[in-house]
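Continuing the batch. This is chain 6 of the set; chains 1 through 5 are on the previous pages. Same settings as before, nothing changed between runs. Recording input and output for traceability.
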Amino acid sequence: MSNTKNTSDSQSPRNSPNKQDKSDQVEGGAADSRPSPVQVLRDARGQLEELTGMAAESVSSFEQTEDGWSLEVEVLELARVPDTMSLMASYQVELDPDGQLTGYRRLRRYERGRADSGRR
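Output for chain 6:
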């Protein structure tokens, strides 16, 4: 009896990866032509981090343009104690249609604990 139970238990985990494999295949198929928006976000953060050496914490804006993709990425520039005094920066990041970074520039710097009253 315990073998039968183990066999049925071992079949359940097999079913989950099969479902995951199908979703991976769909994602993989889309990656053959153009990257998905999620993949563009991941790649952009990684590329910016590699170039600047600073941790990309979040993406505050993201849009597809005629030339590719445009993102605004929030980056930790200088860690301080307490954390609310750390210096953050917003970077404009431009990518080509394939998700390769073509340029970036810092838009502004601010303390993490400060509200941005100038932007709406």
